[in-house]
Amino acid sequence: MSTTLTHLECTACPAQYEAGKIHNLCTACGKPLFPRYDLKRASETLTKESLRTRRGGLWRFREVLPVVHDENIVTLGEGDTPLLPVPRLAAKVGLERLFIKDESVNPTQSFKARGMTTAVSMAKELGIRKLAVPSAGNAGGAMAAYAARAGMEAHIFIPQDTPKANVIECEQTGAFVTLVDGLITDCGKMIAARKEAEGWFEMSTLKEPYRVEGKKTLGYELAEQLDWTLPDVILYPTGGGTGLIGMWKAFDEMEAMGWIDSKRPRMISVQAAGCAPIVRAFEKGERRADEFLNAATTASGLRVPRPLADTLILDALYASQGRAIAVTDAELLAATREIGALEGLFVAPEGAACLPALRELRAAGLVQPEETVVIFNTGAGVKYLESYAGMV
Q1: What is the value of pTM for the model shown?
Q2: 219: which residues sit within 8 A by CB, 6+ positions away?
Q3: Distances from the Cα of 143 to the Cαs of 17, 58, 74, 107, 367, in angstroms?
Q4: Domain extents for the chain?
Q5: What topology does CATH give the domain 83-110+212-388?
Q6: How far apart are the C-alpha atoms of 381 and 299, rounded to whole Å?
Q7: Tell me: the pLDDT tens digits for 267-318?
């Protein structure tokens, strides 16, 4: 098994870039780059049948992941998270088949581990030694852990009101942590101002090309767990949106390899009412999302006022006849307890936000009882204890 990576391609213009070199954004237009693969060659060894005999974890999908040399893979055992049927919750919202893809069982207790295993592995392969990332919480914790595993230096900039568990996690895995009086966008500006002088490689969402490759394995696993039939509807909590666009990329790759047909799930982007740039743009029928000023929500992972991937997210929503829905903090916090009491899952506020969004879709007749629906829980509720203060 080895990668079939051929080149990198801009997501917005015709520019292409050589694999095996250090890249951030497209130098022609400033947009994100996607790795591309020889999918015909990949499909010769990466098959539905071969997956059954491979060791677990997301690196099973080796041919469509970017690392060339196995010794550069930095892993903590991420991936292969459960797709759990939630029958009591399904009955309550009037569905026959509802699942939660539970990413809280990843290393560092969130889906961010998927992106960081591929991004840090590629940084190692490319000889990078110092990493920097702005984070709303979980991405920082994941980068700190994988950088430590790789013997790299990690610099993490996070808002000062980030959940304490995330801050402690970064510190205890050896990162240099800077608390910022502001939002994730302000953290990013600080890194941009210092990275050249400090010798940092910036690992911001989609400002490097490889975090999305780890996230796309959500789509591969989901298809495999549903016996290669995609669900009708996917509800995805959207901050930076890398998981959503990563899955969309995975669906195209799987179709090219002959694993699935052209049918796609309706992609539902779920945001917090206090930070809903994608929802606002979607409702206007736009392909770009303006910055959401004065962003505020207890679901820290959703507090991304201006996602770099705005056009890619919105294009997936439009192409799939999906939706973008905003829910209040009160709704998503109540949903955390409801999911926990019915199904025993203490989900993150971001994942919980999908439940009131699903109810809205059901009430509008946009999801039918017989359809298969998947909610993504992106992290562990235990990392957000401040969100639940006063609720017991």
Answers
A1: 0.96
A2: 246, 247, 248, 249, 250, 251, 254
A3: 25, 17, 11, 11, 37
A4: 83-110+212-388
A5: Rossmann fold (3.40.50)
A6: 10
A7: 999 999 999 999 999 999 999 999 999 999 999 999 999 999 999 999 999 9
